[in-house]
Design a protein that fits this description.
Keywords: Cell membrane, Membrane, Transmembrane, Transmembrane helix, Transport. The chain crosses the membrane at residues 15-33, 127-150, 162-182, 189-209, 215-234. Belongs to the AzlC family. The protein is mainly α. The protein is built from eleven helices and no strands. The chain has helices at residues 7-34, 39-48, 52-63, 68-78, 81-89, 98-107, 110-119, 129-152, 168-183, 189-209, 212-234. Helix 1 packs parallel to helix 8. The radius of gyration is 18 Å and the shape is globular.
Amino acid sequence: MNNQLDFRTGIRDTIPTAFGYIGIGLAFGIVARGGGHGPLITLLMSLLAYSGTAQFIIVSMIAASSAYISIIFAVLMVSARMILVSMTVAPYFRKESMWRNVWLGTLITDETFALTMSKLNYTNHRLSFTWLNAANIFAYSIWALASLVGNLVGSLIPNPNAFGLDFALVAMFIGLLYLQIIGDRRMGLLLQGIVVAIVCVLMYLGLIFIPSSVLVLVVTITSCLLGMGVKHVFF
């Protein structure tokens, strides 16, 4: 990763995260095939919904004959965290038009957001529409293609977990977290380690007491508040 913010660099910076998209995309395609959804429906779901967690929820709830309003509400709850993501990125694009901001917000994901936060450490906290647009489009294309391929070969891979596909996304986020920690020179490793520990503890407790549909949103807000408190009091 470097300080360049052109289209080609956006694609190149996103390539390492593509493996996570490929793994989970294939897994989703296989699950969709098992739920009776053909290649066209699977591809359209990835292009229109474009949310790994939400798409798995959609497929499972359709299989359970859930009401459409319940499916829509569940997807909205799971995707509510993207409001925080968009609010964090938006200040870097104040000079862009509303439609450009809407376009970026439409395609941004957890992965490209994490990539963006790491990129800031190399660009003196600057971003460009061209760079993030390239990252978003590349990730979007890989996800849709992987979902389609997964659906087409679904009958040949009855158990994707046997190939470690279920761990691909986790491994990708571990890598992005590592890059963020070593790249952020404004905060010491001790403070970052404390914040990571806070998130882990809250996620563990949240899995016990908080519904999974809002867990990430609640933990994100709480961790940010606690992290700011720790920084101002002890650092």
